[in-house]
Write a structure and sequence with these properties.
It contains twelve helices and ten strands. By secondary structure, the chain is of the alpha/beta class. A hairpin with a 7-residue loop joins strand 9 and strand 10.
């Protein structure tokens, strides 16, 4: 892949998904797109670029999916889920006891392991939720990845990565392809296609947002846009959980770190004082306007 093609792909991915690649990630693009070259019967990545320049929308979606599908696993990193169980949920249960309604958003749900982990954890550890309305909204940019998540079918290798054997036996059925999440658990999650670059206020308000290991790939200006909009969708006692390598520090002031957690947990009102969160959705700049400003600062191929 030559430099001109790489620069074009960098700009294409930034515009289509927010994915920001530096000059040293050419190897990653090649590793992700070479399988597409074979699938589409092309000769090399330069031919992919030619098709993108011709506005081949089907291939464009395939390229975006190939580059944005991230590896995931059940109970990934452990600590976030341990603290979700021991610290976060007891507080939420106490503060929502009258309303008895819990809403959780898993942004960038990928192949579904994280939403299913949350669903299993809630059922195993909080039987009092049986009388509650519990909603888990799982979104991802890729319809193909979401379809796989919705089917809930995982290989033997995938279920061995982090999933306790007792939960495998309880919540999965053995099938020809490996293991499938039982229908009741599958139906407890609302799977939706969503690009985080677009307006997502229609999803409503949430008690907890899991947005782990995805913003790390975005430019700072784009991160700020997304985080500021997420802040409007959480109450002052709500929580945002990010990946261990991610932070809001130096990006936005609409969130503060919750110090009791070892995991990367933030709140819109961590200090007890409002942090300037805007809730007037109609007055917010449109995603298109914000992204025009952000991408104008992105490096553009000569």
């Amino acid at each position: 892949m030559n430099l001109t093609d790489y620069d074009y792909l960098r700009k294409f991915l930034l515009d289509s998904s927010g994915l920001s690649l530096d000059e040293q990630k050419q190897y990653l693009v090649e590793a992700r797109l070479i399988p597409l070259v074979k699938t589409w019967g092309l000769t090399n990545i330069s031919e992919i670029v030619m098709e993108l320049r011709r506005n081949n929308s089907v291939l464009a979606n395939a390229v975006t999916e190939a580059m944005t599908t991230n590896e995931t696993s059940f109970f990934r990193d452990k600590t976030p889920f341990e603290e979700f169980k021991s610290l976060m949920m007891p507080q939420i249960l106490a503060e929502r006891a009258t309303r008895r309604h819990l809403r959780i958003w898993v942004a960038a749900a990928a192949t579904g392991q994280e939403p299913y982990t949350i669903a299993m954890l809630l059922r195993e550890s909080f039987p009092e939720l049986n009388g509650w309305k519990v909603e888990i909204i799982a979104t991802d940019i890729s319809p193909q990845v979401l379809e796989r998540a919705r089917s809930g079918i995982y290989s033997q290798f995938e279920v061995q990565r982090g999933l306790p054997i007792q939960l495998l036996i309880k919540y999965f059925d053995e099938v020809e392809e490996g293991w499938q999440v039982k229908e009741e658990l599958r139906r407890s999650i609302d799977w939706r296609e969503l690009n985080l670059l677009q307006d997502f206020s229609h999803l409503g308000r949430f008690d907890v947002v899991f947005c782990r290991n995805v913003l790390i790939y975005f430019q700072v200006d784009t991160k700020k846009i997304i985080l500021d909009r997420m802040a409007t969708m959480l109450p002052s006692d709500g929580f945002l959980m990010m990946g261990a390598a991610e932070t809001v520090i130096g990006i936005t002031e609409t969130f503060g770190r919750v110090k009791e957690y070892r995991a990367a947990v933030y709140s819109p009102d961590n200090s007890g004082q409002p942090l300037g969160i805007r809730t007037d959705f109609d007055q917010l700049p449109t995603p298109a306007a914000l992204l025009r400003e952000a991408t104008a600062k992105a490096p553009v191929a000569e």
